[in-house]
Every structure is written in structure tokens, then in C-alpha cells.
Specification:
- The chain is of the alpha+beta class.
- Helix content is 19%, strand content 30%.
Amino acid sequence: DGRADTPPRLPDTFLVGYPASAFDSVVEAAQRVLVLVNVEGGVDFVVFEQEHPWFGPTIEAALRSAPFTPALRDGNPVPGWLALQFEFQIVGGGPEVAAMRERAAARVTP
């Protein structure tokens, strides 16, 4: 059986910025991805369920630069898949939205 005892994990602090074009156009999206984390905690593959042209590259860049905790089997690191959902939402309107542009980020859930 090639299953891991524990799946790979995201770093405790993991933020994905809102793509400027999407924010300026008030575009919201949810993106589901599978990530293959290698034994060193790096990302080997990112597979999108349906990649959005603005959100996909931003998500992939953030994932590839993040230090993951690799999956473990019998206490040893092994490659492992992690399923994630990224939700990009703009809440509110008017000047409040304009003021939050620099702080806008996606919510990520496993």
C-alpha cells in the first residue's frame, strides 16, 4: 500500500494575493487544485480542475514558492497529493474595496 500515514501540509502562514486584473475587474472565482508535494516539501505538479487565466498562474506561483511539510509514511517523508480549494471574493463595494486592494487575498481550504 503506497498511502501516506499523514498527508502533506500547507505552511501555517500561506497567503495568495488577489490578481490585480481580477480585483480591478471585480472578478471572483473558486479554484480547486491537486498539488503533488515531494519529499523535500517542494511542489512537483499542480493540477487545476478548471484553471482561470487570472487566478491559475497566481495560485501556482504561490504554491511553488511555499515550503510544504511532506507526507509521511512510517515516519519517513514520501511524495503525497493535497487537494485544496482557493476562494477569491471581494466583499463590500465603493472606497472600502479600493482601500483593501493591497491586502486582498484568497481563502484556502483543504
